[in-house]
Design a protein that fits this description.
heterodimer; A: mainly alpha; two-stranded antiparallel ribbon; about 5% strand; B: alpha/beta; Rossmann fold; 2 domains; 6-stranded mixed beta sheet; 4-stranded antiparallel beta sheet; about 25% strand
Chain lengths: ~270, ~290
């Protein structure tokens, strides 16, 4: 059962979004989020929504997969929409039924809010999580944040921790599976009993898992030392990231998009 | 004369007991390892063979004695961090559990880890990674994730990670112990290839007799002391002595030894490989039958 968990949602592919430099993508996502929140007229919201679908199309990722991700936030969207519709006051009263008053502004806000969330989720997942492998992402983050080293922020250590965590998650999941099987073979029932009973049944899983994780950490540290690891100082990297023309074209497109969104706010 | 990559004289090491009393594990070991040789270190559990490996790579520091590794006197008072670093670059170590040695989420990134730590130029790292992958026959798995690989494959990736640092000597600390028979065979072939084709000195710590046979020289460690030392033929001829130390001889050797001593058949002194044993038995059969 634990085997089905996929960490991160990287969807391998060969689209232009997959090929973009991870450092550039981090900047792009910032520009994109700024554009989404800068929008405040119907036309700019329409643009934002359209842009999300353009990105989705460019990524060549099955739309079903990405839109499926929206299900998780459906409750939140519905909740914010309802609050906006019923509690926003404005000038243009549409419906009045007893204590319930629905204004045009409320409905507008609700729609805008939904568009924002939808664009945010589609845009960020398509730009970043679906098209960037976790290792490229940590690598990109380390390089983007490297100027912070001047301020003694442990950027390298942080990215090393992320890499090791990503490396060991499948290993530890496998191990948890094994321990669960071993406990089941000894007659532990994880499904019956009260909540407290079931929580107690987890202790015999957590303890061996922790013991083995510490043991692994110890062995890994020795192995890393034997491979001459001594922190980020004087370390080189095999993969060198290169910015290509496409990176700048996409960047330019994003900046133009932000400009257009702001212009639409002013015009309409 | 050939140069020695490791020289140990009266090497001693003890762990601390729970009540602080020293628990001697390595007692007065004296031995040399010739550059370019393939040496197996045999011993049962707790014989001190893994501790010995850790001493040679300075994961542990000897209590007393002399130890020179790759021309560096590691017992020197002023041994610096830099010396230890240089030593580890030249003496690679592959451990037992392949899972606990791999750092990165992609095979080739993991192999690059060592050279990256050494601060080597990216182009050169790329060359070394490709070369190391080819050496362990894993080129097609370069972009795989380690958890998709079998135990033997993971261990070969771990070996490639060491090869990419271009060491003079690699110590295998029971690197085959956790593998299935297929994985063991893959790793043993890789180890043998490294020694024969690349001239890397190999120290193979194991408790599998059939693996020890493949070396040029076998050292048997028992209770922190060297019990036997010599060619596989010489060492495995001491069947009784090995059994007393809780070790076995290869099955073939045990069988022919019994045929010789218990049944009185006229067979050669020590037979290590099944093919040789078959030849010898055939010759014997022809002799008796014909």
């Amino acid at each position: 059962m634990l085997r089905d968990i996929t960490l991160g949602q990287y969807f391998p592919g060969n689209s232009i979004l997959h090929k973009l430099d991870p450092r550039m993508k981090i900047f792009l996502i910032i520009i994109y989020i700024v554009s989404i929140f800068a929008a405040n007229s119907p036309v700019s919201f329409a643009l934002v929504l359209a842009s999300a679908f353009v990105l989705l199309f460019l990524s060549k990722i099955p739309a079903k997969l990405v839109l499926g991700g929206l299900k998780a936030v459906f409750v939140i969207m519905a909740f914010t929409a309802i609050i906006n519709i019923f509690w926003t006051t404005g000038e243009d009263l549409w419906v009045e039924a007893g204590p319930i008053k629905i204004y045009r502004e409320g409905v507008e806000y609700a729609i805008f809010m939904i568009v924002r969330v939808v664009a945010l989720i589609i845009g960020s997942s398509v730009l970043l999580t679906y098209t960037t492998s976790p290792i490229a992402l940590t690598d990109g983050l380390e390089r983007v944040l490297s100027p912070l080293k001047v301020l003694h922020v442990p950027v390298h250590e942080f990215s090393m921790m992320m890499t090791i965590a990503l490396r060991f998650i499948p290993t530890l999941i496998e191990e948890t599976d094994k321990i669960i099987s071993a406990q089941k073979a000894r007659g532990t029932d994880f499904t019956a009993g009260s909540l407290a009973d079931r929580a107690k049944a987890l202790i015999p899983i957590m303890v061996p898992l922790f013991v083995s994780a510490f043991h692994r950490a110890d062995e890994l540290a020795v192995a890393m030392e034997c491979r001459c690891y001594r922190g980020g100082e004087g370390r080189t990297r095999m993969t060198r990231l290169h910015l290509h023309a496409r990176d700048f074209i996409v960047l330019a497109a994003h900046i133009v998009f932000l400009g257009v969104v702001i212009a639409m706010n002013i015009v309409f | 004369m050939k140069e020695n990559i490791i020289q140990a004289k009266n090497l001693c090491f003890s762990y601390k007991n729970e009540d602080g009393a020293p628990l001697p594990v390595i007692k007065n070991l004296t031995f040399d390892i010739e550059r370019g040789s393939f040496v197996s270190i045999l011993g049962h559990n707790g014989s001190g063979k893994s501790t010995l490996a850790k001493l040679l790579n300075l994961v542990l520091t000897p209590d007393s004695g002399e130890l020179t590794v790759g021309g560096i006197d590691v017992m020197r008072e002023d041994l610096s961090e830099e010396d230890i670093y240089n030593l580890r670059r030249r003496i690679g170590m592959v451990f037992q559990n392949p899972d606990n040695q791999l750092v990165a989420t992609i095979v080739e990134e993991d192999i690059a880890f060592g050279p990256e730590n050494l601060g080597i130029e990216p182009e050169e790292i790329r060359r070394r990674v490709d070369d190391a992958l080819a050496a362990v026959n894993m080129s097609e798995f370069a972009r795989h994730s380690p958890h998709q690989l079998s135990g033997g494959q993971k261990q070969r990736v771990a070996i490639a990670g060491i090869i990419a640092m271009l060491p003079d000597c690699i110590i295998f600390d029971e690197s085959t112990a956790m593998l299935d028979p297929i994985g063991r065979a893959e790793v043993m072939d890789t180890i043998e290839g490294l020694n024969r084709e690349r001239g890397i000195t190999v120290l193979h710590i194991t408790h599998y007799m059939d693996e020890a046979v493949r070396a040029d020289r076998v050292m048997v460690v028992d209770h922190g002391e060297i019990l036997l030392d010599g060619t596989p033929e010489a060492v495995f001829s001491h069947v009784e002595q090995l059994k007393a130390a809780g070790l076995d001889v290869p099955q073939v050797t045990a069988l022919t030894h019994r045929l010789k001593t218990e049944a009185g058949f006229d067979l050669p002194e020590t037979l290590l490989h099944s093919a040789d044993a078959v030849e010898a038995l055939k010759a014997l059969y022809d002799q008796i039958g014909g």
